[in-house]
Every structure is written in structure tokens, then in C-alpha cells.
Amino acid sequence: xxxxxxxxxxxxxxxxxxxxxxxxxxxxxxxxxxxxxxxxxxxxxxxxxxxxxxxxxxxxxxxxxxxxxxxxxxxxxxxxxxxxxxxxxxxxxxxxxxxxxxxxxxxxxxxxxxxxxxxxxxxx
Length: 124
Hints:
CATH topology: Rossmann fold
Structural class: alpha/beta
Helix content: 40-55%
Largest sheet: 5 strands, parallel
Strand order of the largest sheet: 3-2-1-4-5
């Protein structure tokens, strides 16, 4: 199974905070690919730069150190994101939906607004 972590889930995992048991098992399973989108790194770095978030570590190094893989942003991802219905106005979340759809991944999230899209979600 392929998993794509939403930004809040990445932060919880890096902080050692608990997530839903089924999501934790899926993330910890060596049978699964667990990705962090470069868009998520971008989003969180922007939030830090404007003072909405304080990060202790280099997010890329922390994610890689936690055994997570980075999912690069490709042109087909951005085109698909731009063509999605406007159920959700957050461009970073829309990009995650596009990436998950095109890459056959489930998004690990607690964001109920993503349920409006035809994408597989795993409740965090």
C-alpha cells in the first residue's frame, strides 16, 4: 500500500504524538511505501517563515531520518490539482489529493474536507 502523509500527520509522527491505531500500523508496516510530499515540506516551511509554526529540525532530514520517502511534485500533479472541483480551497491539500490519485496512494489525514474528493483516505 502507498501512503501519503498530510502535514499534521507528519508533524505528529516526528513529535512522537499518537495517531489512530490503524494508521499507525499502516505507517509502521514495512510492506507499505510511506511518502511525504515536497508540497507538505513547502507548506510547513512557509508556515514557519510567517510565524504560524515553530519547527525544531530540518523537515527534510527529519522525514528521511524517520524512514519516510519524499514524493516530488511533477507537472501532471499540478495539472490534475488545478482541474479538481473546488471542494477544498487549500492549494496544498488539493495537490495532495492529485498526487494520491495519480500515484495510487491513500492520504493519511484527519481533514474531513478531503472526503469530498474521490480519493482513498486513512483516518489519522
